[in-house]
Amino acid sequence: MSIDGITRASRAHPGFVAALVHRLSGLALALFLPMHFLVLGLALEADSFTSVIAWTNQPLVKISEALMVGALAVHFAGGVRLLAVEFFGLTRAQSVWIACAFAFGLGVGVLFLMRAF
Amino acid sequence: MTPISYFLQRGTAMLMVPLIITHLALIIMAVQGGLSAEEILARTRGSMLWAGFYGVFVFAASIHAGIGMQTILREWTPLGRLASANIGHMLITVLWILGARAIYAVVWA
Amino acid sequence: MTTSERMLRVDIWRGNEKGDYQSFEVPERENQTVLDVVTYIQRHLDAALAYRFACRVGVCGSCAMTVNGRPRWTCRTHVSRVVKGGKLTISPLKNMPVIRDLVTDMTLFFDKWQAARGRFVAGDGPKDELAPVQPDTKERMAASEAIECINCGVCYSACDVVSWRDDYLGPAALNRAWAAYNDVRDGDRTGILKAISAGNGCHTCHTHQSCAEHCPVALNPTFSIAGLKRASLKAKLKGELSK
């Protein structure tokens, strides 16, 4: 896919932006999952689990975690919208639903940060 | 996408709707005051409820991620149908194994 | 031509897959369409310019081109609505091979209509009577929403999935398949669901809605495709697609 592919003028509409965000957040989550499972698997060795979880309390790690939580929330809300279109015939004001999905993701991410610090 | 992949992709998505709501709520609650290993394990150790919850979650999320990855590879890389599908299936298998190990670790170990 | 006339700068794609933009100066007129501009160039500035049109009133679907990056029906697109800083950039439709200048090869596009079984197959109904189709039935109303397609190729040109996977049947063919599926007189409606359930059919759509965004006659192929997804899933789970 060329750069032209992403930046085509015909793609400047909410549906494409939503799809792009959905895909990129999904990709991030798919790459994050193996690490997430590996870390939890460390609970088999009590010491390393405790130290890894302690490591996650650094500010930068917390911010990265907030990004992942936000990605999950955005991917979730975008996915619910997509299911509503495909299975329940949601037809009206797509841009409003897309905006709601983004707002939900942002909100959950910010809430995470507020509680984490 | 084949009808089977489509069915699995949308089916796991629907299945995960309540799971993700729970997961997000739990994350927001648990992060207060920083994460600690004891806090996580106190909740999960010996709990068949959480074992079941995470079992279904890992099962569905792995399939969902694998099919998604396959679609992205097919559309955004020069890889063909077969290579994309193989990588997608490998990801599902790896996530199932790592996920099962993670659940075993936080519930039984 | 007087010097006081306001001129449009028009960059037009010349060549086939390889080529370049050529600039023309075209006098600006009131109520001028993009097709008027292209026709002016062909008649007054370069008779060798290749482009397609027929009806000039938005019925035939021949004149679609990419205008300032967006696919449009040029005969119903007023220059005043799309011009940017006195400039127009006109290129052939995307997602199709270019034959020459603004003319694309639509063979694969129409082959896909056939592949999606977008044609009527007669059933065993009475041959000398009109089949009764009530206007307020669910199928007839679903067909109505998909039926006004003018085959212009704009949605196919705008489709992101087609741009990433050239075997995908695309919004136009699938929209047609949805209209055909909702024709209760059709003798093999399950055959349509089989045709659009191959690996390159309706399930390949990710609901970006670029087709709906650009359709000149305001159809929503995405919703037609969603209808096919539901119908084929139902048929698949009932085992009707494997018979």
Q: Structural class, judged by helices and strands of chain B?
A: mainly alpha
Strand tally of chain B is 0
Structural class of chain C: alpha+beta
Q: Sketch the major β-sheet of chain C.
A: 5 strands, mixed
β-sheet strand percentage of chain C: 5-15%
Large-scale geometry of chain B: elongated
What is the overall pLDDT average of chain C? 93
Q: Name the helix and strand elements of chain C from N-terminus to C-terminus, one letter apiece.
A: EEHEEHEEEHHHHHHHH
The averaged pLDDT of chain B comes out at: 93
Beta-strand percentage of chain B?
Answer: under 5%
Oligomer type:
heterotrimer
User: Termini of chain C, distance in Å?
Assistant: 69 Å
Helix content of chain B: over 70%
Low-confidence spans of chain C: pLDDT under 50, at least 5 residues? Answer: none
| First-residue to last-residue Cα separation of chain B | 40 Å
How much is the radius of gyration of chain B in Å?
16 Å
Low-confidence stretches of chain B: none
Largest sheet of chain B: none
Q: Trace the largest sheet of chain C across and list its strands.
A: 2-1-5-3-4
Q: Based on DSSP secondary structure assignment, what is the total number of beta strands of chain C? A: 7
- Give the CA-based shape of chain C: elongated
Summarize the structure.
With 117 residues, chain A is mainly α.
Give a verbal description of the structure:
The complex is a heterotrimer of chains A (117), B (109) and C (243). Chain A has 117 residues and is mainly α. Helix content of chain A is 82%, strand content 0%. Chain B has helices at residues 3-30, 37-44, 48-76, 81-107. In chain C, a hairpin with a 3-residue loop joins β1 and β2. In chain C, α3 packs parallel to α7 (171-181), α4 packs antiparallel against α7 (171-181) and α7 (171-181) crosses α10. Chain C starts with 6 loop residues before the first strand and ends in a 6-residue tail after the last helix. In chain C, 44% of the residues are buried. The interface between A and B is large, with 40 and 40 residues.
